[in-house]
C-alpha cells in the first residue's frame, strides 16, 4: 500500500459526520463544526501535561477533573474510543487504583493523539476557506 492511498477513517476515533448531519449538513454547519473542532483540539497535549503533573503530585482529584473535562469536550467529536479510555482512567483515579493508572494514562494519551491527528486531517479536508 502506498502513502497516496488514504487509510479508511475509524469512526470510533473521530467522526463529526452525525453532528454535521444533525446541524443541517450545509456550509453554516460546516463552519460551526470546524470552529468546534479547532477549539476542542487547540490545547494540544497540554491537558496531559497538566494531568501528569497532578498525578505525580498525588493530586488525583485534579487529574480526574482534567480527564473528565477532556472527555466532555473531545467526546462531542464522536471520539468513542477516547471516551471509553477516559472513563476507565477516571474510574481508576476515583478508586485510587495507582497500579493501573499509568497504563490507562498511556492508553488514553494514545487515543487522544489519534483524535488530534484525525481532527487535523478532517480540518484540512473540510474547513471552510478563510477559516
Properties at a glance:
131 residues; Hpt domain-containing protein; elongated; Sig_transdc_His_kin_Hpt_dom; mainly alpha; HPT_dom_sf; single chain
Description:
The chain has 6 helices and no strands. With 131 residues, the protein is mainly alpha-helical. It has one domain (17-125). α2 runs antiparallel to α6 (101-126), α3 (46-56) runs antiparallel to α4 (60-75) and α4 (60-75) runs antiparallel to α5. It is elongated. The N and C termini lie far apart (33 Å). Residues 1-8 have low confidence and may be disordered. GO terms for molecular function: protein kinase activity. One of its GO terms (biological process) is phosphorelay signal transduction system.
What is this structure, in a nutshell?
This protein has helices spanning 17-22, 27-41, 46-56, 60-75, 80-94, 101-126. With 131 residues, it is an all-alpha fold.
